Amino acid sequence: MPASNLGKCEAPLELGFIGGGLSSAIGQAHFAACQLDGRWKLVAGAFSRREEISKDTAQKWNIPAARTYKTWQEMVCREKEKLDAVVILTPPSEHAGIISGLIKSGIPVICEKPLVGSLTEVLEINQKLQD
Predict the structure, then answer these.
(1) Entry pTM
(2) Are strands 109-111 and 40-46 parallel, antiparallel or unpaired?
């Protein structure tokens, strides 16, 4: 969306989180930040590999159980037509595979730094963008 249209959105853009559950330091910060200007709304997530943490996170943040997933792959499969972007909040060693999966599904990516850990991963992601 062009920057000039940002203030003209009638409804907030819908976000999904991969990672960032209550047990992480970064999740709460991103949850709070995405709500600051009213342009984003967290609506789905695969918040943790630990199902209990993911459920607790969803409950605290008012995410419906039906939009809370055990794996990021399941979330992408079920949400790809609904989400405007996905925020990746996992350890950096997991970023390249998740980014590639999101690109393949046509979902815009918002990624915690560092983006990836090696030149090889950058080249792999670049190839996905070219496909």
Answers:
(1) 0.88
(2) unpaired
